[in-house]
């Protein structure tokens, strides 16, 4: 049984993330989507909300599950018998940091990182950009699943009402 992890913040999950997760699900027997819950970044969605959106998005893939983790990713991998970390690479600009993390993680637990090239139609896609464009009224409906778009729109309306 080869089990891989797709880690990330997923704030919120985009169609680019789902492309990588779906392709990972064809490469491995089991894929765990691991949502980082470390409080290091300003999030638009709570960890529970991010996991709910992922569970709904991944419901059609029977070998994909969603979990949260705090602390080191390598600790999660050891505890969940995970053999590989799958990361999407959008462009060469992603590579330096991803290589550094892959090498650090390998030095900690001897785990492999598998880089999957992002499909060209998603190469510009990032959760941070989706949030920024949506905040200023741009149409991001084609970049995230419909249910995520609905939640994003609702959250932006809540934020606007509080301001
Ligand atoms: O979606 P992101 O923000 O690029 O995800 C980054 C994430 C959560 C995968 C990464 O920050 C991570 O693995 N964090 C856990 C803490 C950790 O293990 N740090 C050492 C990395 S070498």
Automatic annotation (TrEMBL):
TM region positions: none
CDD domains in alphabetical order: PPAT
A single GO molecular function term of this UniProt record: pantetheine-phosphate adenylyltransferase activity
Domain annotation Cytidyltransferase-like: ranges: 5-132
BP term (GO), one: coenzyme A biosynthetic process
HAMAP family: PPAT_bact
Protein EC: 2.7.7.3
Entry-linked Gene3D superfamilies: HUPs
Listed name of the protein: Phosphopantetheine adenylyltransferase
The reaction(s) this protein catalyses: (R)-4'-phosphopantetheine + ATP + H(+) = 3'-dephospho-CoA + diphosphate
This protein's UniProt keywords: ATP-binding, Coenzyme A biosynthesis, Cytoplasm, Magnesium, Nucleotide-binding, Nucleotidyltransferase, Transferase
């Amino acid at each position: 049984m080869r089990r891989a992890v797709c880690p990330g913040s997923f704030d919120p999950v985009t169609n680019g993330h789902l492309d990588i997760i779906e392709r990972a699900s064809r490469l491995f027997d089991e894929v765990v989507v691991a949502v980082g819950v470390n409080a290091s970044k300003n999030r638009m969605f709570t960890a529970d909300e991010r996991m709910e959106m992922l569970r709904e998005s991944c419901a059609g893939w029977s070998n994909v599950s969603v979990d949260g983790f705090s602390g080191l990713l390598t600790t999660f991998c050891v505890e969940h018998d995970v053999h590989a970390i799958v990361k999407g690479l959008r462009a060469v600009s992603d590579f330096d940091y991803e290589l550094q993390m892959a090498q650090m993680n390998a030095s900690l637990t001897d785990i492999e990182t598998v880089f999957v090239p992002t499909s060209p139609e998603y190469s510009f896609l990032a959760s941070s950009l989706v949030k920024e464009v949506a905040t200023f009224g741009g149409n991001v409906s084609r970049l995230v699943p419909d249910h995520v778009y609905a939640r994003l729109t609702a959250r932006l309306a809540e934020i606007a009402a509080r301001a």
